[in-house]
ABC transporter ATP-binding protein
Amino acid sequence: MTLLAVQDLHVEFATRGLDNRLRVAQALNGVSFTVAAGEVVGLVGETGAGKSLTALAAMGLLRPPARIPHGSIRFEGREIIGLSDRELEKIRGRRMAMIVQSPLTSLDPLKRIGDQLVRMQRVHDTAHGAAARTKAEAMLAAVRIPDPARRMRAWPHELSGGMAQRVLIAMALVNDPALIIADEPTTGLDVTVQAQVLDTLRDIVAARNLGALVITHDLGVVAHYCQRVAVMFAGRIVEDGPVREVFSRPSHPYTRALIDSTPGRIAQLGWTVTGGTPPDLYDLPQGCLYRDRCPRAATACLAAPPRIAVSGTHGAACHFAGEAA
Ligand SMILES: Nc1ncnc2c1ncn2[C@@H]1O[C@H](COP(=O)(O)OP(=O)(O)OP(=O)(O)O)[C@@H](O)[C@H]1O
Ligand SMILES: [Mg+2]
């Protein structure tokens, strides 16, 4: 069952420069992908590719000057673009939840962990009082926090980075959402803790048949934790398919460059790794946005790159996708 279906999503920022001229940055330029129940989809791509914007849009969290001039985001069959904040608040934290990178800024420093988990349930009217406390403690146990009864009374500053990230996962899951969106959930944690936290997340997602969108710079994380991967470049998905297939037979030159530049499991890919700079979002060229950096670029790439089939199992937005590497 498809939980999240993003189709041809465009996001732009209109800002006025010092000369008072309106400038428009086209940050997302036709993003399409789906996440089904029971599926963990990785979203990768260099800095500025638009991964976080995609996540924020899916959560209904974009705010001006961000604008959605075109596209569709359906969650559980319902279009969420255009919903009021009141309607979105009924979905966010309830049917879909987000895990972000910095747990200590996402937790309320003035409230005990248990109280925050209870409040999360009260706000969404999923449980109250003793039932909510029991559920909160069970969630802390589920994310493998030792001695959960005692941790209920802990303050955020008393937690290690790994523990705080687990608490955030518990917060995201306490109302039994169908979809989890995790934006670099373990960046900044050391490798061992990162693996423990991701293992926990993967086990819960599998046991509850959740859908998950995991944003990461780390192709090793994708290889270990995701079934499907979407590769993003300059606000477009340039390749989408089963992880094994995409990693063994990448079709888009950008995906190839990304994989070639990954030295080991824990490589953190920054934008310089594959060489070149991203295109100017304020002045996007026609045609394929990767062509200036592409070894395969040809005249055909001056026209628009082919769109990838949304329902296909493995596709790439490249005229030469069918060619052997
Ligand atoms: N308020 C804004 N005004 C103009 N451009 C913006 C604004 N916010 C974001 N952008 C642009 O949107 C693009 C996508 O940003 P986004 O944060 O989604 O990238 P990302 O893929 O998550 O990168 P990272 O890996 O660094 O987290 C970037 O080029 C960024 O400069
Ligand atoms: Mg980001």
